[in-house]
Each structure stands twice: as structure tokens, then as C-alpha cells.
Amino acid sequence: MYLSDLKVFEAVLRLGSMSRAASELGTAQSNVTTRIQVLEGKLGISLFERHARGVAPTPAARRVLPYVARLAKLAADARAAARDDGVPNGTLLIGSLETTTASRLSPLLPRFAKACPNVRLAITTGTTTRLLNEVIEYRLDGAFVAGPVDHPDLHQRPFVREELVLVTTPSIRTKDLTSIEGLKMIVFQIGCSYRQRLETMLIEMGITLSEPQELGSLDAIISCVSAGLGVTLMPRGVIATAVRDGRVAAHALPLSRAAVETVFVWRKDVYISSAMTALFDLIESRP
User: Which of 32, 46, 174, 231 is deepest in the core (most CB within 10 A)?
Assistant: First the structure.
């Protein structure tokens, strides 16, 4: 069994089609079909059920899939370890909350680039749920997420503690919220921890919520709240400029609701490269 065969298998399963997998991998569909047939022969099982619109994975294929990512990561770690002479290099794939990227990572990234010029640091943003899954499934080397995190396969280290505030248009006071019919939350997609906290808080206040407005960027959320389209929950530091400019108002919350911690997580079973060590050092030495 070759890693290249497993890569083809993963692409077919993810895309649900031999032809789409061939297009992504830059090869002929016949080659993909042959590689899957060879893999099925080696395993002695059928991995896909063929139908008119493509293929569907069998239960056996779903059982095999987690090992594909682990084997690919193990091979990548072996190559990285062989080439790692102590000078940070290579690629570091890091995930981060949108809010953390905007308020906390932006000042650190130039420092990292200067200290590690041979490292390509790629940052992808998402919700805590999505980023945790990406790390668990070996697609990210690590991620900054809302903590604490309790998962048997992950390490975590504290990054920053912040104060969450309720964010509204300047004309709204906290006591006004209960009188607003169909109050709308302006939030990131499901899986965002701030969204979950806000929904719980508003429901406990007896507020009837309308369908939330989901947006993909911090700027868009702040703009909608500023326009009076709804409310959101954000770290105070993230919306400080918008508050200072009079675009939004920040309302303090009880400590039990306001305290939030961002942590950095990574898998326990991966190789810690010099590049990752340099990132750890930067986290620890930040002002």
C-alpha cells in the first residue's frame, strides 16, 4: 500500500467522484480508477459503490479514512524531522479565530517573519469547532481557539484572556434589549463559541430571537451592528476602535459571562518542528 494510493482514495472520498478527483490531482480519470481498484485489491474490500452521479464510500472506506490522514502526517513529520537542522524552515499551517487574528496575531506576524524568514506561515480563520476538527484531522499544525479545550489527542497552552462585551448600535441601552421584538444576532457561523454564549445569554434574559444573520468577516459584523441590524458579542479589544469612533457601543457583562480565554492547541502525536518551537517562543515572549 503506497501513500500515493491513499491520497487518491482521500480525494475520491472527499469529492464523491473519480473525475473530480482526477481533475484535482492533475491526472487522467482512468489512472484514478485503476489506483482505487489496486487499493481495493490489496485490502480485499470494496471502498466505493459506483452510481450514475459518481461514487459513495462504503462503511469500510469510512473506517479507513482516519488512518489516511495519520499516515500522511507521519510521512510528512518524518521528512520534516530529517531536514530539521534547528533553523526554522518549511511551512507552518496555523488556524485562528477571526477576532484573534485581527486583535492579537497582527502585531506578532511581522515579528515571526523577521525571526524566521525561511518559514512560510499560512493563517486560516474559522470557528472554534471547525479549527479543532482541522487540527484533529491533521490538516492544521495548530490553532488559536476559544478555551478551555478538553480532547484526549490535543495539547493546549494559554494565549490570552479577554473580556467579552455585548456590542450594539450606540442608541441601544442594555435594558432596551427586552423590548426589541425579534432581536437579531449578527454572528459568525455555527461553531463560534461567542455565538453560543450570546444566544444562551439572550434566551436567559427572556428575549425572543429572530433568525441570526451569519457573516464571514469581523468588519461585516461590526458594520451591521453599527447600522442597527442586530447585536453581537466580541472581545472588548476587538471593537475598541469602532467604539472610539462612535460606530458601536460596548456593554459590560457580569464576570461569569465576560471572561474568555484563547488557547493554542496542537496534536500530541506530531513532530514539533523548529518552526513550531519558534512560534511557541513568540507566544511566550509577547508583551
Answer: 231
Model confidence, pTM: 0.76
> Could you tell me which CATH number the domain at 3-81 has?
1.10.10.10
Helices 3-15 and 29-43 pack at an angle, to 10 degrees, of 110
DSSP, res 185: B
> Of the candidates 78, 51, 69, which has an alpha carbon nearest to the alpha carbon of residue 14?
69
**CATH architecture under which domain 84-161+261-285 falls:** 3-Layer(aba) Sandwich (3.40)
Dump pLDDT digits (tens) for 189-237: 888 889 989 999 888 888 878 889 999 889 999 999 999 999 999 999 8
Cell of 5: 494510493
Residues in the chain: 287
How far CA 212 is from CA of 208, 234, 281, in Å, comes to 12, 16, 39
- Domains of the chain, residue spans: 3-81, 84-161+261-285, 162-259
- pLDDT tens-digit profile of 150-204? 999 999 999 999 899 999 999 888 777 877 877 889 998 888 889 989 999 888 8
